[in-house]
Amino acid sequence: MQNGKTVVIGVIGADCHAVGNKIIEHALKEEGFNVVNIGVLSPQEDFINAAIETNADAILVSSLYGHGEIDCRGFREKCNEAGLKDIILYVGGNLVVGKQDWKEVEKRFLDMGFNRAYPPGTDIKLSIKDLKKDLGLEE
Amino acid sequence: MDAILLIDFGSTYTKLTAVDIESEEILATAKDLTTVNTDIMIGFNKAYEKLMKNIGEREVNFVKKLACSSAAGGLKMVAIGLVPELTAEAAKRAALGAGARILGVYSYELNKHEIEEIKSKKPDIILLAGGTDGGNKDCIIHNAKLLAEHIKDVPIVVAGNKNANDEIEEIFNNAGLFYKITENVMPKLNTINVEPAREVIRSIFMQKIVEAKGMKNAENFINGILMPTPAAVLKAAKILADGSDKEEGIGELVIVDIGGATTDVHSIAKGDPSKPGVTLRGLQEPYAKRTVEGDLGMRVSAVSLFEASGTRRIKKFAPNTPYDVEERCKFLQQNVNIIPRTEEEYEFDEALGMVATEIAMERHVGTVESVYTPMGIIYSQVGKDLLNVKYLIGTGGVLVHSRNPEKILKAGLFSMESPNYLKPTNPVILVDKTYILSAMGLLAEEYPDMAVRIMKKYIVRA
Ligand code: B12
């Protein structure tokens, strides 16, 4: 059953880790989302352009190779610039290099304008629950 | 003897080709100046007389007379989409493949200024796209409203988000516009679907544009002006590559057509990455792809060709030319009818042809970028990989009349100087010596098997 919401997903920057991306696509589809997967090696502009054309409700950004912070900088501002004012932005994967305090890392991504950020090893099912809540599909 | 007459009402010349049905030979060709401003049939009749003279004593009965046209400015179009790299680009590619000259590409919500600009460009057809199916529809509806309000007399092809079609239909019906709705040029993100829009554009061309350009009276004598000339070339290219029901094609190919004003490149190829470990990104490319470079030409566009390349790049192909490159380009642009006579003039024209080929191919083919990682290099490709294309074919006056078409065409091949351009590496180089490609595109409409056989016979090694 389709739930009527469209989500853009992809792996940002020069990052070619493809496995998690496919798993996320599958999990979202199972929950009834219309998934627009732009795949690996995707610059910010590709996420934004895809969201505009498909009238997406949310963008889920993956970053696995440790350069997430650099790659994600300015993402929210670009969304605003492109007219995607209230679009929901999540980010997850292995966002930074090494063992850093997650609270610190999370704060940095929230300050960048992401609605939610997820630490390594997060079960994607939990994130999808959050997403449904944020989109008003579930309590 | 039964024969078929194929006519190309070109921008400068009306060219006729007579094909013998029995022997599948080209009986004769002839041309004369196109006379679209007075009566298109005057130039046609002159060419026809020459043709009959060339045919000679033999009795011919033309059982079919088919035409294409790029007279009166060709098919002029404006393409409108949402995101420049996505639906606007997809719309542009659809229009190019339909044989159009693109006057402008617009994206996002249009403003009044842009609407005025579109109006002043006087397009023959407007292609309106925007949004994937189920995606954004605000933009295309906004643009439909503006068009309905400000542009009344231009046929519109709607090929955008299907969820917007009902509303657009209502808007255009209320405004009394002539329009046709067809499938989305980009139904899903990065998936291109240009054929339905191309077909609709062609039907409007036959139905309305031919008449609007004062060519209706030609249709009393011939069976129809079926398509714009570049669409006929693309059609010929496609059937030559793919084959017909009975005739096998020759496989993936690229056609380069260098003209006085533009350089066209057609490729019939999938273009998927030919090397392992390459990730394909961005908007999918049409299997039959046409690009037109309006700034690369041998005469009318000689100065812009110079601006796009520069002295050093042109001199790379003519190191000892006595000319000042910029001055010579200006001179050629002001004297468009110049035909080279001396060795120096030949050499310079060849160099221009080579630069035009090189740059036009760079713009047509895909590129690959390397991404450096601690694991080594990974590659990402945008556009078509044409490295392994089997044939490179030259057509158009410059190449057909050149003494050395192979040398000119070789400038379009893969080079280690710029290895990120995925140009053909080692294709067989052919030339359309009898200049029959557009005629064969027409012939293919009625006799596809014959068209393939004739092309195989007449398009020969350089
Ligand atoms: C396989 C692999 C590779 C393969 C990738 C093949 C491919 N094309 O997919 C290759 C060998 C090419 C590779 C290369 C590199 N890799 Co690697 N790779 C891995 C490895 C072993 C597994 C990744 C994987 O597929 N996991 C399985 C999937 C299902 O999990 P996942 O990717 O984490 O995704 C899940 C979650 O993270 C989450 N998730 C992901 N995104 C998002 C987004 C949101 C919004 C949410 C909610 C959730 C979410 O959901 C996903 C599904 O469950 C990991 C280590 C590991 N065990 O994780 C290292 C790892 C990711 N690689 C790493 C590194 C450093 C690299 C390299 C830079 C060099 C190197 N040392 O190998 C290069 C980078 C290449 C590049 N430019 O991208 C590091 C990253 C370190 C960091 N971030 O701090 C890791 C963690 C290994 C390590 N511990 O050092 N790698």
Describe the structure.
- By secondary structure, chain A is of the alpha/beta class.
- Chain A has six helices and five strands.
- Chain A has a five-stranded parallel β-sheet, with helices on both faces.
- In chain A, helix 5 links the parallel strand 4 and strand 5.
- The relative contact order of chain A is 0.18.
- Chain B is about 40% helix and about 25% strand.
- A six-stranded mixed β-sheet of chain B has the order 14-12-11-17-18-19, with helices on both faces. In chain B, strands 3-2-1-4-10 form a five-stranded mixed β-sheet, with helices on both faces. Chain B has a five-stranded parallel β-sheet with strand order 6-5-7-8-9, sandwiched between helices.
- In chain B, helix 8 (about 230-240) packs across helix 15, helix 9 (about 300-310) packs across helix 12 and helix 15 (about 435-445) runs antiparallel to helix 16 (about 450-460).
- Chain B is globular.
- The two termini of chain B are about 30 Å apart.
- The interface of A and B includes residues 45 and 65 of A.
